[in-house]
């Protein structure tokens, strides 16, 4: 076959599940001289920023900001609520759930993992059994990942709340919404979530480097009973800052705050309901294409039941080494970067090359999604990877409002 002319020159597209595409407006907001951190615009901006962040998480409670990534927010949530020896329950549906559990273990928690594998959501019956058996209420928190980005499984957080309520178990319900916030519907207060952790580089469209822990009164009461919480992780001064430096326990991530301000403006101008609706339609277009591709060859969606698919990310399977070959080709030839498979096989295991993921979170629209899907179609044709027909037609029907 004659090698095709390279078509990668032009705007590159990082279609991985985080960091996500950064809007030009966010980049422009960050491109400025160092601002004063003692007075002036940046300091004045904070109350509005906090209020608008809470609106995205649908909470009227508190938020603490951390100059760190999602791993920082994981640790912060635990540092304020869990003592060495406390039990925590981790209903895991992928790598991220397991990793949060590992962070808890490293802080001295007694971690019980309920592993639901890589293709199924949490099984509430099994969680009920564990909570019922814990008559002494030794489990202090349930660490639930809303969307596990490695498997793209969406978990039913309200159902988990209902389980805790039915059993009458007082454990804190903590939700990792790092992948889902601003993509999949999430309602912290209405769903009865006590602690929500998220990062800025996925649905919030800001370069990696900030993360957030939202906490309600129940979580605050647990925090108040801790013997000690390190000055750095303590969420109280960050949430109740009376002076600017307290929000960040030191120097503020100045330029990130400007980027975040703009991203929040974009989200609220569009409207959070519309943001969710846009993600839902774009995700349906992705699934329609993937379902068509899956009708022949080895192409398969990791999550078969559409009820448990996230609107932010899609994990996919192809016979090894085709997933890596496809990713390499579309990046090199088209300027399109697809996500690696995560947590499905160990790096070094040949099976590793049979997984990939698409990010469709944040600053994405109809033509971008059609472009990603078209790039994958072209790549599979070029590489002679067997696949079902009609994927782009199926996606266009969704984008065009016909399906
Ligand atoms: C991205 C992600 C994380 C990790 O965030 P980092 O910023 O890489 O530390 C954790 N949980 C979920 C669900 C994620 O998507």
Report on this structure.
The protein is of the alpha/beta class and 403 residues long. The chain is 40% helix and 16% strand. The chain has a 7-stranded mixed β-sheet with strand order 2-10-9-8-5-3-4, with helices on both faces. A 5-stranded mixed β-sheet has the order 1-13-14-12-11, covered by helices on one side. Strand 6 and strand 7 form a beta hairpin. The two termini are 37 Å apart. Pyridoxal-5'-phosphate binds at residues 18, 69-71, 96, 145, 147-149, 176, 178-179, 199, 208.
Defining key terms:
alpha/beta, five-stranded mixed β-sheet, 14 helices, binds pyridoxal-5'-phosphate
Span of the ends, CA to CA: 37 Å
**Distinct compounds present:** pyridoxal-5'-phosphate
How helical, in percent, are the residues?
A: 40-55%
Beta strands, count: 14
Anisotropy-based shape: globular
Radius of gyration: 22 Å
Largest sheet: 7 strands, mixed
Strand and helix map with partners:
Blueprint: E1 13-15, H1 24-30, H2 41-57, E2 62-66, H3 70-79, E3 87-92, H4 95-106, E4 110-115, H5 124-133, E5 139-145, E6 147-148, E7 153-154, H6 157-167, E8 172-176, E9 195-199, E10 211-215, H7 217-224, H8 235-239, H9 244-248, H10 254-270, H11 272-293, E11 300-301, E12 313-317, H12 322-334, E13 336-340, E14 355-359, H13 366-382, H14 391-399
Parallel strand pairs: 1-13, 3-4, 3-5, 5-8, 8-9
Antiparallel strand pairs: 2-10, 6-7, 9-10, 11-12, 12-14, 13-14
Helix pairs in contact: 1-10, 2-10, 5-6, 10-11, 11-13, 11-14, 12-13, 13-14
The structure holds pyridoxal-5'-phosphate.
């Amino acid at each position: 076959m004659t090698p095709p002319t390279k078509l990668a020159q032009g705007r590159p597209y990082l279609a991985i599940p985080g960091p996500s595409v950064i809007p030009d407006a966010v980049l422009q907001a960050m491109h400025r001289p160092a601002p004063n951190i003692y007075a002036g615009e940046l300091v004045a901006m904070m109350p509005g920023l906090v209020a608008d962040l809470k609106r995205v998480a649908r909470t009227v409670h508190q938020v603490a900001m951390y100059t760190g990534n999602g791993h920082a927010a994981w640790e912060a949530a635990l540092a304020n609520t869990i003592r060495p020896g406390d039990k925590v329950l981790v209903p895991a549906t992928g790598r991220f759930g397991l990793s949060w559990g590992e962070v808890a273990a490293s802080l001295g928690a007694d971690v019980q993992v309920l592993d639901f594998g890589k293709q199924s959501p949490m099984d509430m019956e099994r969680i009920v059994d564990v909570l019922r058996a814990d008559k002494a209420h030794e489990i202090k928190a349930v660490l639930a990942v809303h969307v596990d980005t490695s498997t793209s499984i969406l978990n039913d957080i309200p159902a988990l709340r209902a389980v805790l309520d039915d059993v009458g178990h007082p454990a804190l319900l903590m939700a990792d919404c790092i992948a889902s916030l601003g993509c999949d519907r999430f309602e912290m207060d209405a769903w009865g979530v006590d602690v929500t952790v998220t990062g800025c580089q996925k649905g919030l469209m800001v370069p990696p480097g900030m993360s957030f822990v939202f906490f309600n009164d129940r979580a605050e009461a647990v925090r108040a009973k801790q013997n000690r919480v390190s000055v750095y992780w303590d969420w109280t001064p960050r949430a109740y800052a009376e002076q600017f430096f307290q929000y960040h326990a030191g120097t503020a991530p100045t330029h990130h705050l400007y980027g975040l301000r703009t991203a929040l403006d974009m989200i609220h101008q569009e409207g959070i309901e519309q943001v969710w609706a846009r993600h839902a339609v774009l995700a349906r277009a992705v699934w329609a294409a993937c379902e068509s591709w899956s009708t022949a060859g080895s192409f398969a969606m990791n999550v078969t039941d559409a009820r448990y698919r996230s609107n932010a990310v899609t994990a996919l399977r192809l016979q090894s080494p085709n997933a890596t070959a496809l990713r390499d080709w579309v990046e090199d030839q088209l300027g399109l970067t697809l996500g690696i498979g995560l947590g499905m096989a160990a790096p070094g295991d040949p099976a590793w090359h049979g997984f990939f993921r698409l990010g469709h979170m944040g600053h994405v629209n109809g033509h971008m999604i059609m472009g990603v899907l078209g790039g994958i179609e072209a790549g599979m044709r070029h590489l002679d990877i067997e696949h079902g027909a009609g994927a782009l037609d199926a996606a266009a029907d969704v984008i065009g409002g016909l399906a």
